[in-house]
Structures are given as C-alpha cells and as structure tokens.
Design a protein that fits this description.
Strand content: 15-25%
Strand order of the largest sheet: 2-3-1-4-5-6-9-10-11
CATH topology of the largest domain: UDP-N-acetylmuramoyl-L-alanine:D-glutamate ligase
Structural class: alpha/beta
Number of helices: 16
Number of strands: 17
Length: 464
C-alpha cells in the first residue's frame, strides 16, 4: 500500500500545481495517509540520522529555515516542510515527496520538521525524532490552543511518547523548562547571556511564568522580553538551568545583530542579517541543534551570516516607490518583538497593522490587548490599520494614546496608503496576520514578479 500511497501523493501534488490550487503541501498527505495510514511512521524510520522536530509558539519557521540551510550547506540531504504546512498532513506530504514513488525509499539523511504545537501529540509518536527543539511558549490563538496549560499538556504528552529523543530547550523560558521534567533521554539547554539586557523601563510590562518545580510565580533578575530571562523561584529555590549553548556579547542593530555563539567549549562570532532579539533566539536554537548534529561552529556561523528570511517573515515589496517591509505578527510576544526591532531604526517611518480573524489567523483577536503598545513611543509615527478587525485594532491603539490612526479594511489598499504617508526618506513596515499577509502578497507581489507557488501553497495549506 505504501507504493500506491506515494504515487497518489505525487499525482495529487502535480494536479494541485497544474490547476493552481497550491503547491501540494497538504492534500497529497491527506490522500497518502488514507491509502497507507502508517506512512509517516514508515518513511521517517528510513532517515539515517533521524528526524528533528522544532515546535513552540514563535520562531518555528525561521529556526527551521536557519537549521535546514545550515545542514544543507554542510552536505546533508534533507526533508523539509518549508512552506509552513506544519500539521500532520503537511508533514506526510513532505515525507511522501522525498520518497521514490517506485522504490519507497526516502532520499534524505534527516528531516527538519516544523510541527504545530497542537499537533505534536499525534505527530511525535509516529516520527520518534532524534531531537525535539522547543523555542518558547506564550499565548497564541486561544480558539485553537486554549490556555498555556492546555498546550503544555499536549507538548508533555508528545515528549513522553519519544523517550529516546534529545530535548533542546529554551533555558530562559520556565514554561519550556517544565516540559523536560522527568524526561528519560538527554536534555540540553540554550539561552542568552543576559548581562546588560535587564529592561528597567517603567512602562514595560514584566510578565511572570509559573515555576517548573512548585508552580508558584517566578521572578526575573534579568529580563529578555515577556517572561523570558534569568528567572528564579523564591518559594522553592529553583532557577534557570545552566545553558549548554549560549548567545553572549549581543549587539542589536536596526537591520541585523551579532553575537558570540558558545557551544561545546568553543566560541565563534555570528553576524545575523536580520534584526531583533527574537531572531537571536532563533539563530541560537538553530545553531545549537546544528552543533548537536555534528556541524563545526565556523560552518554554522558562516551559514547564519548569509541567512535569507522565510516567506513573509521579513520581505520587502516596492509600493508607490517605497520599500514596504512585510512582517508576520500573530500573537502578543511576536508582535511586541517585531515592533521593537522596527523601532530600533531611529529614522522616520510609518507602521501598518493588518488584523484578520479567519481560521488560520485565530478567530479570537483579544490578544491585541496584551501587546504592550504603551511601552513604545509612536507619537510621531503615521499608522494605518487594516483587515477584517481593523476597527478593533484602532480602538486598542486609541487606548494606548495613539491618535490619527488611518483605517482601511482592505489590506492591499492599506499598504498603498502606508506608502503614501511614509515620510520622505523614511521606511514603511506592515505587520500582518497570516491571511492578511497573503492578501497583500496576492495583490501586490504578482506585479513585481515575486509571487511564487510557495505563497499559493501556504495559502492552500492554511485553509485546510
């Protein structure tokens, strides 16, 4: 039945592309698993080095691309779900596409797979991964995931189903550290050297997370952002574990950053061409995993230094003569870090926000009230809001003290307005949820010859 499933998957993928219904990232997996329910298990067990799973709230796609590009540059043959189709069907599609239809053999050494947090409990037992990397946990899509305790229980169940996996965990996140408690296999940690990173701004909200040992609130002696940092529990004495992989001497810039990556007793300087402290975390997670898989640190640094962002993560479109940077923002932690990185450039700028409430975005948009807009000086920044919930966002910004917000519900039209209100010589940035981002690309990118089947495939995958 495996051969029939692979042939059906290839036929479905080719038909999907031919008919313009996507790039074959979802339905081929659905069809293949109907024919051969054990497809994911059988194909993943052929991988000589075993699969790597990356999950968590933010940074999955970027971390996977960084890691995949690094391993590919090192000569490894990979299976990747690059389109962001991270549910079980998308993973089945990626594995099926990597196998010979008439041999049933997977033509890869390992798989770098982004896995949706809610899907880990059903996917990880089948994959039995060599490494499970958890980037971070924060509030996201309450209508899908529920609260953090719910998603934490799913991830715990997934980890318990793979006792032989090595866990690579964010030491700065108590919620992530809690997931590895009681794991039978090895547990490694990555984290930032928080020296000089304490955020003492009086307007900044300092969040806390429960202690992984006793469940009482933790305290932060150094804050990275949100509840991440040098945490400790004053009730039971638990504290952040020592990190095996460290990013230190961090220098953040408006268009990139650099840091010292220390691992396995060695250090190397990494120059990252994308901005934001959150992307330092992504690079650290990817570099840590690559080092665990045997790549030398100089090769890791070289690959990270030439990184090109994933689809929709930091993409420039030319609109009315202006470069408009398109950025994904879908939850409080991600939105705050994206705003922070944009505002690191002190030059004139305009900001746009596109908020939709479709299934792929999350129908509950109450998360915008957890974004700490009050901590940022937006008084001189022209702002345009758009999307199906544009007026909700305009109201949120009004409560944050921002006046004069332009409202345009159509995201593509809003980008044009954003270009018009951008100060001369300034920069424009549009932060958008998934479907708003795709709507913008559908209208504006084709005229620039930049809309690819990848975008169509991502849209198709999100809708299914």
């Amino acid at each position: 039945m495996l051969f029939a499933a692979l042939i059906a998957a290839r036929t479905a993928a080719a038909s999907s592309r031919l008919l313009g219904r996507g790039s074959g990232t979802t339905y081929p997996g659905v069809l293949a698993e109907r024919i051969h329910p054990g497809l994911v298990r059988d194909l993943s067990r052929q991988l000589r080095s075993g699969p790597v799973v990356v999950t968590g709230t933010n940074g999955k796609t970027t971390t996977c691309k960084m890691l995949g590009d690094t391993l590919a540059a090192g000569g490894m043959r990979l299976v990747r779900n690059e389109s962001g189709s991270n549910l079980r069907q998308g993973i089945a599609s990626a594995l099926a596409a990597s196998a010979g239809a008439f041999t049933g053999r997977v033509r890869a050494d390992t798989a770098i797979l982004e896995v949706d947090e809610a899907s880990t409990a059903s996917v990880v037992p089948l994959l039995q991964p060599r490494v499970i990397c958890v980037t971070n946990l924060s509030r996201d899509q309450l209508d899908r995931y529920g609260d953090l305790e719910t998603i934490g229980s799913r991830l715990t169940s997934a980890i318990r189903s793979a006792p032989g996996a090595t866990l690579l965990m964010n030491a700065d996140d108590p919620l992530v550290v809690a997931l590895g408690k009681g794991h039978d296999g090895p547990v490694a940690y990555f984290g930032l050297d928080t020296t000089g990173l304490t955020d003492a701004a009086p307007t900044r909200r300092i969040n806390t997370a429960p202690c992984p040992d006793c469940g009482r609130p933790t305290a932060l002696s150094a804050v990275v952002y949100g509840h991440l940092g040098a945490w400790r529990c004053d009730s039971c004495g638990a504290r952040r574990p020592a990190a095996d992989f460290v990013a230190g001497e961090i220098r953040l810039g408006a268009h990139g950053s650099d840091f010292t990556f220390t691992a396995l007793g060695q250090s190397v300087r990494v120059t990252l061409p994308i901005a934001g402290l959150h992307n330092v975390y992504n690079a650290l997670a990817a570099g840590s995993c690559a080092a665990m898989l045997g790549l030398p640190l100089p090769a890791i640094a070289a690959s990270l230094s030439s990184f090109e962002p994933a689809f929709g993560r930091s993409e420039a479109l030319v609109v009315e003569g202006h470069d408009v940077e398109l950025l994904l923002a879908k939850n409080p932690a991600g939105a705050e870090q994206t705003i922070t990185s944009v505002l690191a450039d002190t030059g004139p700028k305009a900001l746009g926000f596109a908020l939709n409430d479709n299934i792929a975005d999350g129908t509950d948009v109450s998360w915008i009230w957890d974004v700490d807009f009050e901590a940022h000086d937006l008084s001189s920044v022209p702002i345009v809001v758009s999307g199906s919930r544009a007026r909700d966002l305009a109201l949120r910004l009004k409560y944050a003290g921002k006046r004069g917000v332009r409202v345009c519900e159509d995201p593509a039209d809003a980008v044009r307005i954003l270009a018009e209100v951008t100060p001369a010589g300034g920069s424009a940035h549009m932060l958008a949820t998934y479907t708003a981002m795709l709507a913008i690309r559908n209208v504006l990118a084709p005229a620039q010859g930049r809309f690819s089947a990848l975008g169509k495939g991502l849209r198709h995958g999100l809708q299914h």
